[in-house]
Amino acid sequence: xxxxxxxxxxxxxxxxxxxxxxxxxxxxxxxxxxxxxxxxxxxxxxxxxxxxxxxxxxxxxxxxxxxxxxxxxxxxxxxxxxxxxxxxxxxxxxxxxxxxxxxxxxxxxxxxxxxxxxxxxxxxxxxxxxxxxxxxxxxxxxxxxxx
Length: 147
Hints:
Layout: H1 2-18, H2 27-52, H3 56-62, E1 69-71, E2 80-82, H4 83-89, H5 92-102, H6 104-113, H7 121-135
Helix pairs in contact: 2-3, 3-7, 5-6
């Protein structure tokens, strides 16, 4: 019986090391966090595989609960700010770029801690287009400054 408990404890420690930001004290909370993380990873795999197969419209339904705007905390005026504008101005964008140069795993963990994930641009545009067509707002493409 003791050997079985030791094996379970060892495997729990191994799980804690694999999952970012797990609660180290309470096993029940830790297992909930691990399950949530596995669900997140499964969704990411599904999103990426569906986008590869050309199912961008279906993917938009999967991730349609992603907010397109957030309340501006810094201004205090309650103004709405686009999510990507907030993340661009709070240094997240630069931090992710730096992490991607150094350690892609750390970059993925950082993005996950901010409730973000990487996806192909074509998929992001399809989701964006689907979301705005449902809202009835015209879609303005972002200017391409590559020239």
